[in-house]
């Protein structure tokens, strides 16, 4: 009776195993992470249930085998001649146990291959999911940087403020750059695994191109972030020079505002020492103007070169910036021309005074 029950249990396991094996073979790999995880979880539970059936059946078979042997030993005093029926029962039980163990091993091998295929599919779907998220993030980053391209500040302080804001944003954006490069390495490992283990997971042929796209996006964003950093620094430097130039022009207006007849009046201010001091101050002012770097900005605008050429070219040829540079440079030329004229006039007056004095 127990042997028949064991046979019946083995048949049930065989039927369950056949149905489950058919289900595994017909399993279509899902196209998203959530469904793949669900399929893997469900099939893992079914596999665990069948393994438990194997464990129970083999355990009962071993118990039955011990019982049959013990019964035979107790009924056969001399232990020399077991009955043919007992031998037949023992052989049948041993055969069924061996069959169950062999079937379990075959099932384990089949399940490991199937699970490896599902796990590879899950890794691939996670890779694709993270790729799409990063792709979306990179698109937002590039769109933002493109929109901010003309926002370079209208003063040294505003350019410095934008630079600080960009520094914080750049730190956040670089996390996506690092994530993309990490995901690329995962993708390359996944592609190699697919190749070496011949898994042929659906969609695995797209891993290579996606890895190349990750590299392209990461490099492009890193370059764009660096370009904005440099562009804002160029803008800050430019506005610093413009500020110095405006200050020089303002002081020039004050310096040149006194009329020439003041120097030719009969007051004590028309002494030779006063002329000499006025000329020295004017020469120092002209020399300070010669040290302004507005001419350099103009030259850079007309002919840009070097590693930062793209940044300089954009900053310096920006419509508002270009007009501002032109206006400031025109003021400098006017003040410089008036300063030269004033110096020439003072020098002539000084010579005249010296001639009169002598």
UniProtKB/TrEMBL annotation:
Entry keyword Ion transport: no
Guanine nucleotide exchange factor DBS-like spectrin-like domain mapped to chain residues: 268-350
Keyword Ribosomal protein: no
InterPro entries, per the entry: RhoGEF_Guanine_NuclExch_SF, Spectrin_DBS
Transmembrane segments: none
Superkingdom: Eukaryota
Matching Pfam families: Spectrin_5 (PF23289)
GO CC annotation terms, alphabetical: cytoplasm
Entry keyword set: Guanine-nucleotide releasing factor
GO function term, MF aspect, one: guanyl-nucleotide exchange factor activity
PANTHER family, per the entry: LD43457P, RHO GUANINE EXCHANGE FACTOR-RELATED
Name used for this protein in its record: Guanine nucleotide exchange factor DBS-like spectrin-like domain-containing protein
Organism listed in the record: Meloidogyne floridensis
